């Protein structure tokens, strides 16, 4: 009955594909889909997304300034060793634009990503001719946001991706997220962090620093968070943790003025 068993498996797969349609979580079980449970970003979809040479992501906040995670950089000061790849989904594309870091400002008081303050700005050695991603003006509500990066497609993957990947993640209430991480021995800083993800859909190692985006008042993309940390990737009950940009907007605006 080997043949019948095989066709049963196929039928179940086909039925599951039809039933779950485009749901990334359903697809994740069938094939590797980076971020985790995400999709490949076509060229030009997120034109301000950048890859940093230390293996993090970032976003062009201004033509000459990248917003990334605090834990992706060494600290505040002169810095000429971060290479930035921009303007492409495929990092090996010949149309990639590159720049180098000149100066970095990291959040004052940053200790490590699990303690909050996880943001940094990098001034580039030249302005890039690319669209920029504005910081969200309004306080962040609950809902669904888009996250992206060139990081691992699975917790146990050993490689980064050549193509930018993205996924839509629902926010998880602070209390629920804090309770989960308390069990793992980490105390959440609710005003500085927001949690998002669903089983099978999450950011992962190497996505850090990349933007979490939502829709602004006029339907444009605005940045609401920064990929920060999490226990593993896409684990049931452990959503990804993101820097809550609304809390840091005044500090980031002040740092932007200092970097101009
Ligand atoms: C990281 O190390 C990382 N699942 C980013 C996001 C998450 C975990 C780790 C969230 O870059």
TrEMBL record:
A GO molecular-function annotation: peptidase activity
Top-level taxon in the UniProt lineage: Bacteria
UniProt name for this protein: Serine protease
Database matches in InterPro entries: Peptidase_S1_PA (IPR009003), Peptidase_S1_PA_chymotrypsin (IPR043504), Peptidase_S1A (IPR001314), Trypsin_dom (IPR001254), TRYPSIN_HIS (IPR018114), TRYPSIN_SER (IPR033116)
Keyword entries, A-Z: Disulfide bond, Hydrolase, Protease, Serine protease, Signal
Classification via SMART domains: Tryp_SPc (SM00020)
Biological processes per GO annotation: proteolysis
Gene3D superfamilies hit by this protein: Trypsin-like serine proteases (2.40.10.10)
Every Peptidase S1 domain range: 35-257
Signal peptide start-end: 1-21
UniProt keyword Hydrolase present: yes
Pfam families recorded: Trypsin
